[in-house]
Queue: 2 jobs
Job 1
Amino acid sequence: MKLEGKSLKHDFFRFIIPSLIAQWVYALYTMIDGLFVARGVSELALSGVNIAMPFVTLLFSVALMFAVGSSTVIAILLGEKKDQEAKEVFTQNILTIILVSILITALVLWKSGEIAAFLGATRLTAGYVRTYIITIACFSIFFICSYSLEVLIKTDGYPMKATIIVTAGAVLNCILDYVFVMLLHKGVWGAAFATGISQLIVVLLYLTHFCSKKTHMKLVRFTPSPSLAWRTMKIGLSSGITEFSAGIVIFLFNHAILTYLNEEFIVSYTIVTYVSTIIVMSMAGIAQGIQPLVSYYYGRRQPEKYHRLLKYALCFGTVFSIAAFILSRIIAVPLVSLFISPGLSELRSASIGVFHTVSYSFLLCGFNIIIGGFFTAIEYPRSAMAISLGRGFLFVALSLKLLTALFNGNGIWWAALLSEALCLLLTLLLFLYYRKHCRL
């Protein structure tokens, strides 16, 4: 079984590095779209793409919920030497995400105007938002399947293959974005269409693995099991919320900005969002990287191994958080210059200040996400859910409400730091409770 290699530390890096690269590539998908839209269309169109981003993160979060849930169950079953049951879980998961994808596409095509308005589209951005979400919705089955299969191929013991496929998709996305946006001048539709096509190709590449003889996961006859579906969703829900938290945070911040500041600050927040999404997805990559290993050793009843994996992840996450904070301060000026034209000097200056303020939150998010992912991998869904709901919605909403009441629009940019700090307190309490009862 490819989940066991030379040593535990070797396996840790064998899974973590590909997982991190895959997360960076997924984060770059939206950044690439944004960069081409900003340069090939306008800053206003970029605001429209940012307003539509919660819908894209919804697709990824649905994929991750089913993928992590089924991956955890599959890894535990493989650890228990129940290979046939693992294949049945894989089959039911694939059919479920196909049905969910079809429902999402139908809903968006039916209610695109209402969804755009709910996301925060204004009179100036509504056309861009609708175009983007409708086009992406037509490819939703490929978005959800690609992300789900990326997680499952790592559980199958091939993390580097997942990274190669994801990277190939990102390169293709860059090429298609350039063709449709810069050469053919297809605007926001072209950016969304390019991303959708690249996701389709990625799915086809994954299928070459799952249709080969190398895989432990094959489609088999099975009897639909509601209890298994519930177990899978219950385990994966916290990871799905963690993934969707980026979209929820964008949604909440966009509404606060439109209420207390003005529309041009959406551009400032969009640039910050691209970097913060990379940081959050990196931490999620660490959590997802150890998940198959932790679940496997949990299934084999070897707590000393999955506890050591957690220590490796926390140490790695701490170093990464500090490095990310320092690097984000260094690249603030050149990154802002990429997205905002030289003529908008005041917006450039304001965006750099926003970037510096929000970057403090990067120091805290890693511990929250990694501990939440660990709780998911050992089937502690309530603790994982509490952390995900806290950092993904409750603490963000509370922080925005409190700080805008005290400091109006200036308080918006400190909300990310306050919400991560509040979540850290909750995470520490849950982790201390776990240590007390599990003798970690």
Job 2
Amino acid sequence: MLKENKIASLKLLVPCMFFLMLGFTPVQLSPRLKEKLHNAVQSTFAIDGFNLELLEVSKDINAKTAVELGGENLFRIKKDEKLLGFVYLGEAPSMKNVFDYVILFNPDLSVKKSKVLIYRENHGRQIGSQRWLKQFIGLKVGDSVTYGKEIDAIAGATISAKSMTNAIAEVLESMTVLHDEKVL
């Protein structure tokens, strides 16, 4: 009876361990998101044949940042070894789901462009309009970014617009840390 209990426990333990291990694997970008990221860089910098170099951030420095910088979300943009800028790929909450966005930076760490890549809700899509997103262009590390103050509100997209504004503020704050720590 004891042997049967051990076998039954092992049969339950092995699948649990498998699913637990899946939870700790690095997040991989979907092909659709990779393509959208590539297109955003290509159109913003008006270039072909560029490289996205993943920026590795140590756990100690990452602990000081407002956003998670592990995985595939922060890259140097280079062409022929020339630094063109940086790109941050993030995810932010909307009313019931999340949306994927990108922030493209000039080499001086000012925002060149921000863009919503994948929006998964029926309401609030206005945050993807370049008319609204252009408010973020030119912001630099250390700049104040507050929804309803420096950034105009959007009727019908309050949650997503606040979320996008907060996300950009946190990324700017994190880029400040990386700059101060000489990572960038």
